[in-house]
Amino acid sequence: MDYKDLANLIFPNAKDISYYEEKYPERNLKEGAIVTRVAPSPTGFVHIGTLYQALVAKKVAAQTEGVFFLRIEDTDQKREIENGTTEIIESFKDFGIIPDEGMINETQSNGEYGPYKQSQRKEIYQAYAKYLIAQGKAYPCFCTPEEGEARRGKQEAAKIRPGYYGVWAKCRNITVEEAIEKIKNGEKYIIRFKSPGREDRKIKHKDVIKGNVEFPENDQDIVIIKADGLPTYHFAHAVDDHLMRTTHIIRGDEWLSSVPLHLQLFQELGFKAPKYAHISPIMKNDNGNKRKLSKRKDPEAAVSYYKKMGIPKEAVKEYLLNIANSTFENWRRANPELDISEFDLQLNKMSVSGALFDIVKLQDVGKTVISKFTAEKVYEEALNWAKEFDKDLEEMLKDKSYALKVFGIERGNKKPRKDIAKWSDVKYIIEYMYGDKFYSQKQNYDYQVINEKEDIEKILNLYITDYYNDEDDKQTWFDKIKELADKMGYAKEVKEFKANPDKYKAHVGDVSTVLRIALTGRTNTPDMYEIMKILRKEEIKRRFEKAIAEL
Ligand code: GLU
C-alpha cells in the first residue's frame, strides 16, 4: 500500500493532471503580455475595491495586449446568494468593464480556459489534490470539528500560534494503511496540504506593488479540499491561476500574508509562480481617522451606490485611476481631451498604503467629465438614469428636442458649464426651465441689491415692453440691459459704478440679477441669454407677471 493507493481510494475517478495541463496550454500571447483576472465571490455585494481591482487588472492587461478575465469564486457556498454572478457581471458592465474571458451569466462563460466558476471546476481540483496525495504531499485528515475546537482552545491558553502544524498536525503522520482503513470504515475526512515549510526560516518575496517583503515560511497544513468536496481559496487560487495562465495576481493586500503559503503551493504542485501585486485598500477619512471603506458603515463602499447616485461611469473610472497612480493628475492636465485608455498605468507606482477616497473630489471629476459630454449624450445618460431611478425626471425629459436645448446651454464651447456632477443633480438643475415645475413650486424671489418694489416692477415691465426681442444676438441683448440700467439711473458698467459708488444705487449686474431671479427664481444659473432664447418672450413675460404679482 502506498500513497498512490490512498489517492486512488479517495479520488477514484479523477483524471491525471496531464489531461488538464494539455487542455489549458500556455497562452499564445506576445512577449510581455500580462494576464490578469478579478476573482470576486458572488455574495450580493460588489465593493468599490473590487471594481478598482478590476479596472487596474483590465487596464494593465490591455496595455500589454494581454488578457483580463473574470472568475467567480463560489467555493464558500454559505455566503453565496442567488444570481450573485449576474450581479457582478452587470455591475462591471455598468462601469464599462467587460472582461475578455469569463462568466457571462450564471452558468455560461466565454473563453478557452474555463469553466470560470469554481463550483464548476470540482473535478479539476480533485485531480490536483489526488496528484499531491499520490506524492505524499497531501493527506486525509480525520480530525473532527470538536477536536479542532479543542486544539484551538489549548493553543490559545498556551498563547501559541494557532493552526494545524508541527505537533498539532495530528493526522499528518497517519500511515497510509491506517488512513485507508479509516476511509473504508466510513470515517469523515478532509484533505490537507503537507507543508514542507519551517517557521524559523524566512522567505523573501518581491511584490510588484509592495516591493520586497520577508515572511516566515509557511508551516501550516492547510485544508485544500473541504468536507463538501470543494477547494479552499488557497488551493483553488494555485490551481486556477496556473491553469488559466494568469501572469499577475492583482488582489487586495489582505492576501499579502498568504504569499508564503501560495508560493509553497505553486512549488509543491510543480507550477511556475505568478507575480503578485497587492493593492492597498481604499480608505476613508472618518473624523480624522483613516480606515478602510466599510461594507457595513459606508454606503459608498458598494458600487451600486454610484449607479444610484448617477455618477457617470467615466467619472468613477477616472477618479479610481487618480487614486491608482499619482501621475494621473498631471497626465490629465496635460491631456484634457484624451480617453483614459491612453493613460499608461504602472502597477509599481501604486500606493503602498491605502489611498484616501474623497467623494467631493469624485464629484468634481464628475462635473468635468459631464461638461465634456455633448447635449445628446447628457440627454441619453440622464434619461437612462431617470428610467431606473426617477420617474418624474423621465417624464420631464419626454420632449427630447426641448431637453436638448436645455442641456445645450453653455455646452460645446471653450468653457462649458460645469454644474452637473451626477444624474441625480439634473432635475434640480433644470427644473426652472420647465413651466409645470416652475409654476407649481414656491419661488424664493430674493432680489438682492435692488429691492424696492417699484424699481423691480419697472425693470421687469420696461424690459419686456421696450427692450427684449427674441431675435437679438447676444451683444445686442446685453447692450439692451445696459440701456435699461442707464434709463433707470443705474451704472451701465460695473467699472463706472466702482469709480463712483455714491453716484449710483446699483449697476447693470444688479439689473441682470433682478431679471434672472424673476425669470428662474434663482441667483445662479447658466447664461441668461441662452435661457431667454429657449423660454421666449411670451414665457418670459408670464414669469415676470408672476414675479410682480408676488412682490
Ligand atoms: N475571492 C477572493 C476575494 O474575493 C479573490 C482574491 C483574489 O483575487 O485572489 O477576496
SSE blueprint and pairings:
Layout: H1 3-10, H2 17-23, E1 35-38, H3 48-63, E2 67-70, H4 84-94, E3 101-103, E4 109-110, H5 122-134, E5 138-141, H6 145-157, H7 176-184, E6 190-193, E7 202-207, E8 211-216, E9 223-225, H8 233-243, E10 248-252, H9 259-269, E11 275-279, E12 283-286, E13 289-292, H10 303-309, H11 313-324, H12 328-334, H13 359-371, H14 375-389, H15 391-396, H16 400-408, H17 426-430, H18 435-440, H19 453-467, H20 474-487, H21 494-499, H22 508-520, H23 528-549
Parallel strand pairs: 1-2, 2-3, 10-11
Antiparallel strand pairs: 3-4, 5-6, 6-9, 7-8, 12-13
Helix pairs in contact: 1-5, 1-7, 8-9, 11-13, 14-16, 19-20, 19-23, 22-23
The structure holds glutamic acid.
Overview of this structure, please?
Helix content is 45%, strand content 10%. Helix 19 (453-467) crosses helix 23 (528-549). The longest helix is centred in the last third of the chain and has 22 residues, at 528-549. The chain has four domains: 3-14 and 122-279, Rossmann fold (3-Layer(aba) Sandwich), CATH 3.40.50.620; 285-369, Glutamyl-trna Synthetase, Domain 2 (Glutamyl-tRNA Synthetase, domain 2); 375-434, no CATH class; 453-549, Orthogonal Bundle (Arc Repressor Mutant, subunit A). The protein has 551 residues and is α/β, with parallel strands linked by helices. Bound molecules: glutamic acid. Glutamic acid binds next to strand 10.
